[in-house]
Amino acid sequence: MSEQLAYVILTPYSLYKSRTGGILSRLITRTGLDLAAARMYAPSAELVTQYAERIISTNDPQDRKIQELIRQYILQNLLPDAKTGRRRRVMLLLFRGDDAVRKTRSVVGSFSSERRGGESIRDTYGDLVLDSEGQVRYFEPAVLAAPNPEEAADKLRLWAKYSDTDGGLLENVITYQPGEWPQRTLVLIKPDNFRFPTGRPGNMIDFFSRTGLFIVGIKVHRMSTAQAQEFYGPVRETLRTKLKDVVAAKAKTGIEKELGFPIPPAAEQQLGDLLGPIFGDHQFDNIVRFMAGRAPSECPPGELEASGTQKCIALVYEGVEAVRKIRDVLGPTDPSKAPPGSIRREFGQSIMVNAAHASDSEENARREMGIINVPENNFRQVVEEFYGSL
Q1: Vertex 29, ends 26 and 32: CA angle to 5°?
Q2: CA angle centred on 387, ends 382 and 390, rounded to 5°
Q3: 1-168+375-390: what CATH class?
């Protein structure tokens, strides 16, 4: 087998109906492929028209009538709104691995008059409704994918070509009622969810969908050590001071056990003052290592800014009271104190390995989005590294 790139595009309707998590879970768990990149698009008429022209293929096992339906669907549902000119949201997921196109297409599925419910993504999330005379009354493909490696390459080059102008952190794609003031907030699905192919990232996105918020940015990101230091920098001083009493109590217990004499309260406090900052710095290094793969002391000279070894997914959610709504679904930092039904209660393990991060204010959301650089076009970078310059 040879390594390939494969793409899956979530349609505007799939995004609107918050089916993102379920679709992603199936793709990750059933293909076993590496999620190499992801990007939100608000495609222009030029991109949509060129993509639609490439849909009909003699090498596609899908029936020609279905291909025509998909082409018509793209022109009707991905073009900017004819009345308002507002562009529509789509999400492009990029997978890499052996036989990636066939594996992805197998999970996506094909439309047939003899469909089996629930087996493929299109079985579950797509619709093809015919009337008594066999005419199409309603059609929703749920996702779009290439039928073979050659067409995957051609279409990926096309989407990469428009990835700067039509993709990134989307603006003006959601309609709000008068008096509604939307916020934006950042979510990080942390590295512990990517140790092996699992449905956890998609399952968490399903949890966040309860908020009714809209995804306007997505990025597969590998934090550098420098980014992790900056991102979690505000926590460092808290750790140095907050843990003094915990460290003092543990040190007191250890000394009394090993040396056999009691430690008076004043000496215990001194132990906390001495060891608390050291222990706090140690815990901070553990956080940086967890997020980036290496603590600062483990980085060779000049590699603090290099991409880390740990993968996370960055998502930007938009909507009214976005910060509060996301934090409510996420739950408190300590999973043991999180309420049932929250993400950290369901997926977290410890205060550090707690499944996901969410900004706690609009100000911090802006700061954190700047560090992660969600609009950065690593999708195009992956495509160009694989196929060569566009």
Answers
A1: 125
A2: 90
A3: alpha beta
